[in-house]
Amino acid sequence: MDFADRARRVLPGGNTRTTIFVPPHPPYAVSGEGAVLTDDTGHRVIDGNNNYTSLIHGHAHPDVLAAAIEAAQRGTAFGLPTHAEVALAEHLRDRTGIEQWRFCNSGSEAVLMLLRAARAHTGRDLVVRFEGSYHGTGDALVSPDAPGVAPSAVLVLPQHDLGALTAAMREHGDRVAAVLIDLMPNHAGLAPADPAYVEALRDLTRQHGALLAIDEIITFRLHEGGLHRTYGIEPDLVAVGKVIGGGFPVGAIGGSAEVLAPFAPAAGAVSWGGTFNANPVTMAAGLTALTLFGTAEIAALNQRGDELRSRLRAEGVAVNGSGSLLRLMTPDPTRLWWDLYRRGVLIGTNGLLALSTAMTPDHLDQIAEAVTTS
Ligand SMILES: Cc1ncc(COP(=O)(O)O)c(C=O)c1O
Q1: Which atom of ligand 1 lies at the shortest distance from residue 187's CA?
Q2: Where, by residue number, does the polypeptide cross the bilayer (predicted)?
Q3: Is 177:122 a contact under the CB 8 Å cutoff?
Q4: CA-CA 20 to 30 A from 4: which of 63, 149, 154, 236?
Q5: Ligand 1 site: residues with CB under 6 angstroms?
Q6: Has 215 been annotated as catalytic?
Q7: Which domain holds residue 300?
């Protein structure tokens, strides 16, 4: 029996993540080392997916692995807080300037926690988000028409339409807890938001007493403090994930002590548990991964991404993105995915390509060659 047939018997569709599914079914991964992943047929590919941008140093980076093993040897989870979560929160504060943090296990969960924070802080119910931006799996964050989704107090506006945003805020502004934006939304084409629009958004939210909440779950890797820093704006809340966990499950929100105050246990406070929140293995691996990814490393990786994008564009390839995140624009992403996979490059199922520090110039040449000849 084909392994996918066996998998389909116990997992609907044969796996657990819609976002990694390619028809008829994706290959199954067996191992990864640096920039290379090996599947269960022994096929080796350069990993340009990096678990949807989260493996900033590729697979099994020796220092990240050592930090995780050392933490795991001391115990993988406790019914007490640990020093490790304080250390990662301090690191995030120092690199972003954002005062306080709260950890969870995925980006989806972080966005839900962010919405809870915004509603608890403002005492308002409505959230504004933008069509086509992906913020994970929460009911409020997917299409309200999708099966199984319960109605939420969410207003979905078109991307980059200042007129629509201004009108919506004029009409509903006093009910809006937060406007949630991803400044370079992958599912909407990985095009960076226009700075004038972002500045106007910041002004509008302030004017109406709503919070500006930025989803940096993919874009955090582009700048030490997150992509918003390149816009020179100050968000009220951010959601992060992916790279901050060193390859382990993670999510977090950051904000001022005032905005996150409702989470501090007290009468009437937000109650938000999580058996594995801030688990010490993730915290240790994340701290090591981020320590190895400072200003110089970020700039170097972004430059490699910019060079690859220029090179692909010069060959006539339609490619969006910024720095170390690229998106190959194609009307048939499944065909491109399989074509590149067979040629030895793994990308995201919608054409996303995320570089890692484990990639050598030779890997980047091989990626460019595969993309331009596919
Ligand atoms: C911008 C953005 N927000 C939220 C999420 C959800 O994160 P997770 O898959 O860790 O739940 C993702 C995942 O790709 C994302 O890209």
Answers
A1: 16
A2: none
A3: yes
A4: 149
A5: 52, 106-108, 111, 134-136, 182, 186, 215, 217-218, 241, 251
A6: yes
A7: 3-61+294-373
Same domain, 302 and 195: no
Q: If you measure from the C-alpha of residue 218 to the centroid of ligand 1, how many angstroms do you get, rounded to a whole number?
A: 7
Q: What is the pLDDT of residues 149-206, one digit of tens each?
A: 999 999 999 999 999 999 999 999 999 999 999 999 999 999 999 999 999 999 999 9
Order of all β-strands in the sheet with 29-33: 29-33, 36-39, 44-47, 345-346
Residues 319 and 337 grouped into a single domain: yes
Q: Which helix (H) or strand (E) holds 145?
A: none
Residue found by looking up tokens 């995320």 in the block = 354
CA distance 252 to 244: 9
pLDDT digits (tens, 9 = 90+) for 323-340: 999 999 999 999 999 999
* Known catalytic residue at 134: yes
Q: Could you tell me how far CA 164 lies from the centroid of its own chain?
A: 26
Domain boundary residue, one of 291, 307, 339:
291
Among 250, 283, 243, 251, which residue's Cα sits nearest to residue 71? 283
Number of folded domains that form the chain: 2
Cα(226)–Cα(215) distance, integer angstroms: 10
Structure tokens at 133: 């931006």
The token pair at 227 is 């992509």
362 is annotated as an active-site residue = no
What is the residue type of 204? L
213 and 311 in one domain?
no
Are 87 and 56 part of one and the same domain?
no
pLDDT, one tens digit per residue, over 265-305 is 987 899 999 999 999 999 999 999 999 999 999 999 999 99
**Same-domain check for residues 129 and 185:** yes
Walk across the sheet containing 251-255 and list its strands.
100-104, 251-255, 237-241, 211-215, 176-181, 126-130, 154-157
CA atoms within 13 A on the CB side of 36: 10
Phi-psi category of residue 162: left, alpha or beta, with phi > 0 → left and psi -120 to 50 → alpha: alpha
| Alpha helices in the chain, H assignment, sequence order | 3-10, 50-53, 62-73, 83-96, 107-122, 162-172, 195-207, 257-260, 280-291, 295-314, 333-342, 361-373
